[in-house]
Amino acid sequence: MEKVTIRRYFPSLVLIGILFVAAYLRLNRISEYMTFLGDEGRDVLIVKRMIVDHDLTLLGPTASVGGFYLGPIYYYFMVPFLWLWNLDPAGPAVMVALFGVATVYLMYLVGRDFFGTRAGLAAASLYTLSPLVIAMSRSSWNPNVVPFFSTLLIYLLWRSTVKKEKYLLFWVGIVLGIGLQLHYLFLFLIGVVIVWCALTGWQKSNLRYYFYAVGGLIAGFSPFLAFEILKGFPNTQTIIRYIGSGKDTGFSLAQFFGTMNEVTFRLFGRLVIRLPQPEIWNILRFWPKTFWLISIRILIFVGLGTLIVFRKNLAAKLLLVWYAVVIILFGFYKGPIYDYYLGIFFALPFLVAGLLVALLSKTRAGLVAGLGLLAVLLWFNWLGQPFQFPPNNQLEQSKRIAQAVFEKTGGKPFNFALLADRNSDHAFRYFFEIWGNPPVTIEFPQKDPERKTITDQLLVLCDNTLCQPLGHPLWEIAGFGRAEVAGSWDVPFVRIYKLVHYQE
């Protein structure tokens, strides 16, 4: 009786252990390891104004390419966490970490329902320890929650078909609407939904449920849709121009297949087998490179081959559709493809790996081999966990630098400029604003003919000691007018200049 009880509850105990490890790897010392640069500062600045100033928005962050904007849903996700953490930027990072833990559970749920309990546990454990996944689960950024919603979409789509729960198509639409506000690559998943519905039978009796899906999409996308309607669809027009320009999109035979091959290799390699970043890969010796190349190619060949063999199984067929539609659409993209772009099918290689473990475990010898391979992968990924290096402390560094600048203002109005190669000044402006003395933005003469936005002092922050602020063409400096240096101070990582108006 005791053995039966242990066997019955063993998967649940293992799952609890997996979730505990996932929470630890995502939440431990999160404020020390989180990214906090210009983009993160911009986001918390907007959300702070939503909370404190009740300045609500229908517009989200700018997309990484194309010059258009996303929807505002991520900002509304951030609101309760920034408020609960008393405007500390670590709050939204905790939110992303919790989404990451929820994705681990969702991975188990999908794997279990698709291919069995062992597949679910294997997929969840691999996802828990994947270094790339962990890194993306520890900072506040809108693409970092995409894996949760893309996986949820696939699970809802599967249940609507296999369990005959057609009403779930409404929630499929809701998730699509949310996902499109997080990253425009979620558009690829609309293709997945359409192809899947076509393959599983387009019937008149199901027509109303497809309207449910469209209704859900409109509801999920409504905050941004409202902005577009009110403003005359400016972002829609920008997106159409971007796609039609052909600069980053279009068909090129050689590049098409090359991109599909690269994305597939990175999807399985970066996520499951800890493939190094290009800068590390380029300095590796022959044998480590050979090991990675062979291991990843075997996983791809065996994994995708297994899906093809079991394609009559609806779960395997859905994973094939998910992979094929997304990888083909990636083939039309000519721009650089970053790791976070893969968030729209992050779960796929882990579910494939879970399926392989489940198939191996059907025999005693296969079970031993499967568990052995799984243990090796988990150990190998554990060696890449983020705590082996000292924390970057970007949040604390930004706060200290902002404090040093703030003290130089003497509590008086000031203008502010940052001279940096890649960063923006929002992270510092955030602290100035919550401390009650935000910098005055210098407006162009057409908008401010009396030049009231120019104060008596300009604080310039340089990310290296070689920069020369006097005469710099940056508008925040040039707009201040002819100036002279009233003082300069070196603080860790930066130099602060105080400029005042030039006196004859």
UniProtKB/TrEMBL annotation:
One of its GO terms (cellular component) is plasma membrane. The chain crosses the membrane at residues 6-25, 56-77, 89-108, 141-158, 170-203, 209-230, 291-310, 317-334, 340-360, 367-384. InterPro entries: LipidA_mod_glycosyltrf_83, RgtA/B/C-like. It is a multi-pass membrane protein. Pfam families: PMT_2. The keyword Transit peptide does not apply. GO terms for molecular function: pentosyltransferase activity. Residues 90-225 form the Glycosyltransferase RgtA/B/C/D-like domain. One of its GO terms (biological process) is lipopolysaccharide biosynthetic process. It comes from the Bacteria. The keyword Disulfide bond does not apply. This is Glycosyltransferase RgtA/B/C/D-like domain-containing protein.
